[in-house]
Each structure stands twice: as structure tokens, then as C-alpha cells.
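A quick aside before the break. I want you to see a complete sequence-to-structure record at least once, exactly as it would be stored in a machine-readable document. Don't worry about memorizing anything.
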Amino acid sequence: MNHTQDDMESRYYKKNFMQKTSVYILKCADNSYYIGHTDNIKERLISHLTRANKDCYTANRLPVELIFVREFNTRDEAFIFERQIKKWSRKKKEALIIGDFEALKILAKRKK
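That is the input. The structure line, written in C-alpha cells, reads:
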């Protein structure tokens, strides 16, 4: 099937700009955190809980609990945020999870 440039641009636009993408944090049974992004949080959570991907980090750390979700307008924005918070300390992640923005400011000023 041959797609026109307009068709391809339209599909790219819908995938990246019309469908909201969520960044989420799961708390695993071993108290570690798993951070990911998805365009369907319900479906993604079910896949974690059912071990749909046996190689996934969470597969051997069940049960998991969804403890944070933030929606973004584009997949690119979500991906950037996901990569950013994966680098954060546990304390900084926990401040984000509970919405403690004062603690986030303080923790952001600390050197690694």
C-alpha cells in the first residue's frame, strides 16, 4: 500500500499530538519504583499485573501499585519527563509522588 505524504503526516500528528500520553510510577512489592509511559494507562497496568511481558522489570516484583500518573499532550513530552525523573533520587521521586513541590525545589538544588 502506497501512502501519500499527507497520510503519513496525518498519522504522525494523531499519534504524537492528539492522543495524550501518561508517565506513571508503580511501587513494586520490593518497594522499588518502576517508571514508564503509555497512551493507555489502564491497559498498561493490566499488562504489568498479568506479567504479559515476562522480561519486564515488574514481572518478578508483583504485586505493583499505581502511585503516580501525569498526562502530557505529546509522546515526546512524556518521554522527556520519564527520562528526567528516572535519573532522580528516591527522595525526589517521593516528593513528586506526594506533590511536595517545596521539597522538590530543595532537592533540585542539591548536588548529586
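Two observations worth writing down. Residues 5-18 form the longest helix (14 residues). The radius of gyration is 17 Å. We'll return to this after the break.
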